[in-house]
Amino acid sequence: MAKLPDGFSLQALPIEIAMAEGRTEDAKTAIVAVLLAGNADKVVQRIAAEMIKPPKRARGRAKSLTRHWLDIGEQFHWLRNDSVKYEDAMVILSQRFGYSESHIRKAIAEFDAAKAASDEASRE
Asked: pTM for the complete prediction?
């Protein structure tokens, strides 16, 4: 019989399943039971260590969406569907929302990306 890979552990399977399902208290209970029994393998010990001291977060502030990206994106596409030129739509929206054209461009890009992701998710 072939040797199992190092990252595989029968003890860790129920713990990892509980964590994946969002049942962290059940996972903690299972970890404590295995640790108290004194036969925890490397994988269970690693999971216990990560629960005690989670990995560091990335530095800096989390990226946020551009302000009013949903309204700007919708209105931009409405204007374009009404055969308004791209440049004119940019000027209209920058005056309407009081933001620069680069802000409007970024908001439209975020709207288009969110719409594409939504369309892709609804196809599956």
From this structure: 0.51
Long-range CB contact pairs, 10-13, < 8 A, 24+: 11/39, 11/40, 11/41, 11/43, 11/44, 12/41, 12/43, 12/44, 12/47
- Do the Cβ atoms of 83 and 89 come closer than 8 Å? no
Q: What is the DSSP-derived secondary structure letter of residue 53?
A: S
> What are the domain boundaries of the chain?
12-52, 69-119
- Give CA–CA dist 81/59, Å, rounded: 42
**What pLDDT, in 10s, does the model give residues 80-115?**
999 999 999 999 999 999 999 999 999 999 999 999
Region of residue 22 (phi > 0: left; psi between -120 and 50: alpha; otherwise: beta): left
